[in-house]
Structures are given as structure tokens and as C-alpha cells.
Amino acid sequence: MKKVITILSTIFLSHLAFGQVSGNINYQNQVKYPDHNINVSFPNQNININTTPTTDIFLSVKGLANVKADAYVAIFSVTQVGETTEEVNSLIDKRLSEALTKIKLKKGVETYIDMISFVPVYEYEVEKKLFSKKSYNEIPKGFELKKNIHIKYSDPNQLNDFTSILSNQEIYDLVRVDYFSSMLENIKKELINKAKLTLQEKSKNYESILGRSFANDQKRIVDGFKMVLPVEMYKSYESYSSSSLNLKKSAHVNNADKSSTLYYQPIIDKEFDFVINPTILEPVIQVKYEIKLVINRKEDKKETVNNKEYILITPSGDMKSILLN
Fold first, then answer.
1. Cα angle at 45 between 44 and 47, to 5 degrees?
2. What is the CB neighbour count within 10 angstroms for residue 183?
3. In which region does residue 236 sit, left (phi positive, over 0), alpha (psi from -120 to 50) or beta (all else)?
4. What's the CATH class of domain 71-180?
5. What is d(CA 219, CA 217) in angstroms, rounded to the nearest whole number?
């Protein structure tokens, strides 16, 4: 008779608080990390393993790779207004020409101008009448022209130079910075190979625990990638510490404006079976890979059903045990 033994393991981890090195983010009561339901002040550190009602065995391996970018594209927005189309085009072309001439002197830099919009601008003219209310008529005021500057570069330190050059032309709006890597395909292959070895080790471990081989069992495999870019992983918070006052309801309190800022919050790697390049110094491209193996154990069910024990009662009242294979 075969018996299935279920082992439940609970791991208790002590809660450690390091206020001096955690950063100002701890002033926030609720800070959610991506893909995790974690409270910074009181993190849930218990491990929850879901069991399935079937006899199938489910094996999962998750891998994470932190990939440093080797190319970047920064996008700056430029807005120009003028009274006539000739004026607005002349002004923006002059600003862009002077800025791009200096930017192109940088090594390995490529630029592209993206036309965004060219629209008329209106204002209201007040029409006064003697025996009626004022009328506000919308009239053309001029034109507004918007363009985006795309700058491709490979050295992340060059972004400071671009910002300085563009600010001299009153161009301050950095829309976004996109990250690219030529090593993504190689990283994906490395993730697959590492996940394969880890999955084989897990499978052997299960075979050792159950005392049987999965060689003749039916198996199904599904896998997939997900890539996360740095532009998606910036979070905002306010850094401050306020006093607690016991005041009457009628008291009037004037709160000061709090400074809001952003920080880069990458995917936390504690729920992955392995991590490639685990130490993160700068924003990186993060590639997640997961492979799931389902082992169908229907043969074991069949054996359990067929190996039944019956009790035969003879005419004399004796009971005999019969095992039917």
C-alpha cells in the first residue's frame, strides 16, 4: 500500500529594522514594491505554499537577469511660440541648430528631430457694449510649434552634457530616457540554460523524496519572458517627519508644502531561484524568465484503483480477504 506524506515547512524570519541605512522612504506608511504585496514598515515574511487537489506534480523555476544598457535614447521636448509662422519656425530652428551643433561634437552621438505639433494659439478679446453685458471673442494670437529632440548615446555620463547644452537654449523638458542592450538575446539563452539545470535538480529532489522515477510519466512544459525597463520602475514619495499634536477640532493648522521626489525601485530578487548580475548600482534592464513543468501521475491513480482489497463472506459466515490486481 502506497502512502503519500505531505510535509509542511514554515520558516520564521526575524524582523530587522535598519533606520539609518534604509533611506527616507521609510517615512512613508505604505510603499508597495512591484510584483510584491509588501509593506515597508511591516513586511510579510511568511512563505505560503499553495497545494493542488490533483496528484500532478508542479515544478516551477524563476530566474532574473539584471542587464546593464549599452545604448540610450534621451528625448527632450521643445516648445516655441510666435506671432507668425515665419517667426515661430525661425526661432525654433535657431535654438535647435545651435544646440545640435554642440551635441554632435560628442563622440558616438546621433540625433533626430521629431515633429510633434504646429497649431494656432488664441486669446480672448473683450467687446464692450453700451446696453448689454461684455462679450469675449476668441481671436488668433499666434502659433505654437512643438518638436522633440531624440539623442542616441552610449556613455550615460553624457546626459549631463546634453542637459547643460540644451538649457542654454531654454530647453529643459527631459521627457524620458530609454535603455537598450545588444546582449538581451545572449542573456535570454543564459536564463534558459540556468533554469533548465535548476529544474533538473528540483525534479531529482522530488524523485528522491517520493522514492520513484518520473521518467515514464507524461510531462508538460510552459515558459515565458517578461522585460522591465527602468522608465517603468520610478516611484514617487515625500520625505518629511511631522509632529503629532493633540488639538481641538476648531484649531486651524497650516501645513507646509512637502517636497516630492522620485527614486528607482528595481524588482526585488528574493523570490527568484537564481539571479544573473544580482548587484545593481545603476538603473538596468531586468529580464524575468519562468518555466513550469507539470508531471502527470495518472498511472499511480490507476494502480491505486486496481489494487483494492475485498472481503468475501462464505456461507458458513467466515470472512476472507481477497486482493484483486
1. 110
2. 14
3. beta
4. alpha beta
5. 6
Question: Could you tell me the three cell numbers for 252?
Answer: 486651524
The whole-model pTM stands at 0.70
d(CA 214, CA 297): 9
Q: Are residues 280 and 266 in contact, defined by beta-carbon separation less than 8 angstroms?
A: yes
Q: Which three cell numbers stand for residue 95?
A: 535654438
State how far the Cα of 178 lies from the Cα of 156, in Å rounded to an integer. Answer: 11
At residue 323's C-alpha, the angle toward residues 319 and 325, to 5°, is 160
CA–CA distance, 70 with 285 (Å, rounded to integer)? 10
- Contact partners, residue 174, CB within 8 Å, separation at least 6: 74, 75, 76, 163
SS3 state at 105: coil
- pLDDT in 10s for each residue of the chain, 325 residues: 443 333 333 333 333 333 334 455 555 555 555 554 444 444 454 556 666 667 788 999 999 999 999 999 999 999 999 999 999 999 999 999 999 999 999 999 999 999 999 999 888 777 776 666 777 777 778 899 999 999 999 999 999 999 999 999 999 999 999 999 999 999 999 999 999 999 999 999 988 988 888 888 898 999 999 999 999 999 888 877 777 777 777 777 777 777 788 899 999 988 899 999 999 999 999 999 999 999 887 654 444 445 566 777 777 777 777 766 5
Q: List 149's β-bridge partners, or say none.
A: 76, 113
Contact status, residue 294 vs residue 219, Cβ threshold 8 Å = yes
What are 57's strand-pairing partners?
295
Q: Is the dihedral of CA 246, 247, 249, 255 positive or negative?
A: negative
How many residues can be counted in the chain? 325
